[in-house]
Amino acid sequence: MSENLIVPTMAEMLAQGKQPEVLFWVGCAGSFDDRAKKITKAFVRILNRANVPFAVLGTEESCTGDPAKRAGNEFLFQMQAMMNIEVLNGYEAKKIVTACPHCFNTLKNEYPELGGKYEVIHHTEFLKSLLDTGRLTIEGGQFKGKKITFHDPCYLGRANNVYEAPRDLISKLDAELVEMKRSKVNGLCCGAGGAQMFKDAEPGNKEVNVLRTEDALEVQPNIIATGCPFCNTMMTDGIKNKEKEADVKVMDIAELIANAQDL
Amino acid sequence: MSYLDNILFAIVLIIGFGYFFNNIKKIIRNINLGIDVDRKDNPSSRWKNMAMIALGQSKMVKRPIAGALHIVVYLGFIIINIELVEIIIDGLFGTHRIFAFLGTAYNVLIGSFEILAFLVLVAVTVFWIRRNIVRLKRFMNPEMKGFPKSDANYILYFEMVLMTLFLLMNASDLHLQNVPGGFSHFIQAGSFPISQFIEPLFNGMSNEFVMLLTEIFWWLHIVGILVFMNYLYFSKHLHILLAFPNTYFANLKPLGQFDNLEAVTTEVKMMMDPNADPFAAAPAPVEGELPAKFGASDIQDLNWVQLLNAYTCTECGRCTSSCPANQTGKKLSPRKIMMDTRDRMEEVGKNIDANKGVFIPDNKTLLNDYITPEELWACTSCNACVEECPVNISPLSIIMDMRRYLVMEQSAAPMPLNAMMTNIENNGAPWQFNQQDRLNWKNED
Ligand code: SF4
Ligand code: SF4
């Protein structure tokens, strides 16, 4: 172990008779994808720094079923949902935070009808609340004067109307927030949603992520900020496609904040 | 003689409205082919949506030019319909400008009708230019060939002709009002800010001839309106009526929330229930009830709101122009999904009409015969189309229901998606990783 991340599991908490303030739902990407794991760790570093009592499900976590549902496999989705709900209810989970808008949307909107009622928040909203209550402070530091543009994830923005939290966080970094010509409700998809991440694109004349990267490059940012592990992958691939890796970085909001803190 | 006129007018009215209501009945019948879904909750937000979006055109103005022009045509339509009340009364009772007794108010009314009629002419001309000369991209998609293209133009021509007739009618009337000593029953009433400039056209014609022209304009105008009203049924112009119920019944939940199929919930619960007898036979289906089908392959599997959506679609293409799949050259066009659904619904409706009220299977379905799996699989479920639609239509909900049919009834997902689903089933993740490794990141560099 090269760094000291404190990541208790719900099972450990329960054994100590404790209930965490929030359950951090890591998600499949956050658990297994090499790039997304960095986002997970950045977020945990911030939680550790702010002394937030949190826990993860660890090996008890399973896919929320979002990609199955968007692909049309309602059976598989509901099986996943019911198994997860059983686990979550077993731990009497109340408040869940997640860095994946797909998990966020599914847990928040689709689980309640199946018996899983929780307060679900996206990590950008949670980080903002930490700042607002003074549990976390950040300074612009290395991002001062940098141009940052934010790509709205469809399942956070249009699907759930969360537009301001990530923007507030960026402005706290003393960075210059530049908006793409299509942003907020008019944002363009990165191309990964609806289970597209897991299949080849239908024939066309361009990849969606390349088109979206062009939107971003138009405003000449130093950093493209994301709030979704899938968007992150798509935009990173787009930047590579445009051979701009040297000039433009793609970073999750959690990473921006962790970096500003030198965490 | 003049009684003949009134009777003829009454007959024309009865035919016009009779045919219209007959077609409205068909629309309602066709919409009811869809399965039931409850949209009665939360009436206050529903009324609010309708007031803002249908009446207030709040989503139209997101594209300012089209929005502003649309509002002019829309206001013109509503206000000139008030004039229609007078026309009908005059026609039925042989009166002339029955509301003239309102005096100044009447002048203001007629004056504003005229100005609106003129503005409508301008707006409609700009619309025509955008479609036929500037050729805006979203009007040029493949699904906009043939009737859909001419339909849009017919509507514009109709409006041009009707507005011109209205102004000509007023101009010739004004001409007769000004005959020294008065002419027949053409009393002095109304104010004519626009048609006063057309009036000199009639100088030098005999009074009797101008009177004949007035009658002709009047008749053409009212008959034109009736024909136009009946044309709605065949046209995307139906939205002027259906936008209201459509926005009222539109989805109020967060756009990301897809419905949880109830039939599936029951089955999954049974599968997961440790006490359930795995060898028990499935409960026998209720007599006369079709076994539940998962997802949608034809219009009867969609719900009535989706079918109402299809009739309401104005084919404006705002959805398609914002669709990431369409922008990157894929076959998917959310507008086409709506147009196909309506076409298929009409086809099924005609089949029912031809077969004394029952649908005789025609070996066709909305899926495959109209909408191909390739279109369906290109959707990223991003909701851009839903957000854009000025009348709150959700093409995405139809796409999802058809994907469900492909996957759950036909196991016809693209191969990589099958792999993804197998992984979720076996490992609890869309990739081939072991669930036991879920926390490994904690100790990795
Ligand atoms: S939800 Fe699907 S159809 Fe609608 S805009 Fe997005 S990709 Fe296109
Ligand atoms: S679905 Fe809505 S946005 Fe799309 S063409 Fe029809 S009316 Fe226009």
Automatic annotation (TrEMBL), chain A:
List, for all copies, the residue spans of the domain called Cysteine-rich.
Answer: 22-108, 148-235
Instruction: Give the Gene Ontology MF terms in alphabetical order.
Output: 4 iron, 4 sulfur cluster binding; metal ion binding; oxidoreductase activity
Against Pfam families, the record matches this protein to: CCG
KW Membrane (keyword) present: no
UniProtKB keywords: 4Fe-4S, Iron, Iron-sulfur, Metal-binding, Oxidoreductase
One cellular component GO annotation, for this chain's record? Answer: plasma membrane
Organism, as annotated: Flavobacterium sp. WC2409
Question: Could you identify this protein by its name?
Answer: (Fe-S)-binding protein
Q: Is this entry keyworded Iron-sulfur?
A: yes
TrEMBL record, chain B:
Per the UniProt record, which residue ranges are transmembrane? 6-24, 65-89, 109-130, 151-169, 216-234
Q: Does the keyword Membrane apply?
A: yes
Residue ranges constituting the 4Fe-4S ferredoxin-type domain according to the UniProt record: 304-335, 369-399
Q: Look up keyword Kinase and say if it applies.
A: no
Pfam families given in the database record: Fer4_8
Q: Domain of life here?
A: Bacteria
Q: Which GO terms describe its cellular component?
A: plasma membrane
The entry's keywords? 4Fe-4S, Iron, Iron-sulfur, Membrane, Metal-binding, Oxidoreductase, Transmembrane, Transmembrane helix
Alphabetically, the GO molecular function entries are: 4 iron, 4 sulfur cluster binding; metal ion binding; oxidoreductase activity
Q: Which InterPro entries match?
A: 4Fe4S_Fe-S-bd (IPR017896), 4Fe4S_Fe_S_CS (IPR017900), HdrC_iron-sulfur_subunit (IPR051460), Helical_ferredxn (IPR009051), NarG-like_sf (IPR036197)
The protein, known as = 4Fe-4S dicluster domain-containing protein
Species this chain originates from: Flavobacterium sp. WC2409
What is the taxonomic lineage of the source species?
Bacteria, Pseudomonadati, Bacteroidota, Flavobacteriia, Flavobacteriales
